[in-house]
Amino acid sequence: MSIWARTQKLPQDKLKHVSNLYEGSQIPIEVRHYFAEWIEEQPWGQIDENNPSQQDQMFAQQIVQKLIEELENRAMELPQQNQYFLLRLKFQDVANQFRTQYSQNPMELVQIFKRNLAMEETLLHQHENPDASPIEAPMPAFDKDKLIMAKIDGVGAKVNDSDKLVKELTQKQEVFTINYQKQLQINSQINQTQSERYLATLSPEEIQRVTEARKTLEKQKKDFETVLSKGAQTIISARLEIADTLSKNFDDLEEVRQLVVDQELIDWKRKQQLAGNGAPFNPSLLENLQKWVESTVDLVWRSRQQVLKLEGLCSRIPLQLPDGKEDVVSKLNNKITGILSSIVTSTFIVEHQPPQVLKRDSRFSARVRLLVGGRLTIHLTPPTVTASIISEAQAKLLLRGPNRHPDNCCGKILNNSGLMEFHQQKGELSIEFRNMILKSIKRAEKRGTEAVTEEKFCILFQSSFHLGMTVNELQFEVWTISLPVVVTVHGNQECNAVATVLWDNQFSEPGRMPFVVPEQVPWPELVKMLDVKFRSLTERGLTHENKQYLATKLFGGTIDDNFSSKMVSWSAFNRDPLPNRSHTFWEWFYQAMKLTKEHLRGPWKEGFINGFISKQDSQRLLEKCHLGTFLLRFSDNFIGGITIAWLAEDRNDSSSFCRKKQIWNLQPFSAKDFQILGLAERINDLPQLHFLYPDIPKQAAFARFMTQTTHHTATADGYVQHKIQMRCDTADMNGSPVASENPQTPQPGISDHDSPLMSPSNAVNSTTGDGTNYMDMDQYDLQELPGIGMDYTADNVFELNDINLSNFLVEAAMNFSNNVPSNLNGNISNMDSST
């Protein structure tokens, strides 16, 4: 359960405290409520607000900017009903306030959110654990660095204690050794005094003195035997105590290893993987990881030295353990060596991933790093790293166990080997492959309907080095693999290759076998992936209406339907074409995204492009607007195309007082069109267009995106400069453009009355019941059908059932051919009601 969901269940007095907390920090409680999930998903703990680095500042700036965008998008997405009016104003006001107050000082807003979230967690802990003391309250979940370092420091204190115990044992054994040597000397002296040959050389008086001396030596011997016996017992007790202490320390170190390696490092890799889909990713988190890893491995290495020293001490003075006591020193050695091995091998990582869509014969780069490389003297003899490309089957074999490295790679990579370098200032041991080139690839046999762009490979990085005083003490063979890559040989394969990569990055599960992914996924998860990818490339994500429209492309229905429980299969996503289309859902979405990234980023970022909206919904929006109002939407049929729909008068309407309205759709523009003339220039050139939906003057919206124009002056060589201008003549069409003399005022003669009765022969130019004609020009190419027609709708007086379809089609064709204008200019095509 989220923090906010739990907070809402707090008693009234604590809820009041939370409300005052946010109001006092000038963050309305509505923001905390309606953006709870977004707020709690942000990586606040990755930003050090007390001593921020340049990366921290940049990351804070990104978070503030994204929050402002979220507020503005939510304000736009709220329904137009009166009950949402105040909330819509609130979100817009807060967005403006945050832009003014925190754009130049984003760290201040970060501090506020971190403080407020920490207080929420404290209140929750007090409420959910009433018997707990205040000291037991948990540290904030986002403050991981302090939490982990505190845990490491706690284990470090125990390792220091065991260091003292080992030193004390060393001193005890040294005293024991000295006493043992003295006892040996006494025994030797006693033996000498008992020697007959020695006594034969002495006088009676001397023998008497030797006898007395022997008695003294015998007493000293007994005393030393007692001392040695007690010393042996002390040493045995100390050894057992040290072994028990080390065993507990190793358990604590294993917990730290699991926290740092199995949780935080895996979490970092997951974030790196999602970053491949465009999700936010803070590279500086790796510096924290290296700090944690180095601190942990230092303690592990010291603990291993303690074990080795204990082993040496035990071998120097072999003592019999009491009954029931087991010699665990060798087991301790194996345990701590296993922990060390796990840390060393797990922290050999791909810091910068290679491109996940690899084109053969193209140059690519990657960066590999050993997080423990600055410690353990590895950097003194930098190891060599080699890169090779392996298949999915070979990757599976690799993960099944040691000594299962693939015998042969499935391709050839140039410039794939080099020595790791130690960067003294950063304390990093890494290697950057800057100029790798994939020269060849060997593909597996095709499986069923799988395309070549669905086949996954990966880059395998391998190295070896040793630790310890001797070469043979600890020998490590380390390896790591990149994220899955798809190999292409032609640019037209990129679209489908990206789909494979996106699906794998988003839906792969932790600990999977390479590179298994689910065959179908929930729609909310898929649309979240599409939103993140679109935002990363265009700087603005998808609105709620956009997402609903995308759902209708896959599932049918209307944008008001609930699609949250729907599942989307890989086949529906990018294998099977959409109904009545020759392209897949992903191919259509990808081309729209590509067009926006390359040619429409500015207007899209500002929210001036509706984009993902159906023709019917665009008509519904426009029919209630001023004449000359237009919007931009991606074409349903023409992938990678965007069309303009606008509202105009119907010139053919003979009414002098209240002419009907009609909506026209311009033939879609493609990337090639925008390479000739940009969108802003095209809109500026069309006098029919006045207001961007709902009521923004087109100059106010698009003037900033126009390229710098020059005056038509003679150049140095005498030529006069020229420019390309777009024209769309609609004067001879079945309708007319809006009058441009006074575009700020709606035309007075327009009313939404029912259309008059019409004969079946004229039904091809019929109108809907609201007096609006729908003219569509994004279905056919201009060269194929150089004219314009009118959609027929069933809202007319003559229903479809009352019309002879054959007569209707013949008469429509004749009307169409007779009305083709001879001076048609611009990109206008016939409209089809099925578009």
Automatic annotation (TrEMBL):
Protein's name according to its UniProt entry: Signal transducer and activator of transcription
A GO BP entry: cell surface receptor signaling pathway
Region (Disordered) location: 731-772
Main location: cytoplasm
Phylogenetic classification of the source organism: Eukaryota, Metazoa, Spiralia, Lophotrochozoa, Mollusca
Keyword 4Fe-4S: no
GO cellular component, one term: cytoplasm
SH2 domain sequence ranges: 604-728
Cell location: Cytoplasm; Nucleus
Membership in a protein family: Belongs to the transcription factor STAT family.
SUPFAM superfamilies per record: p53-like transcription factors, SH2 domain, STAT, Transcription factor STAT-4 N-domain
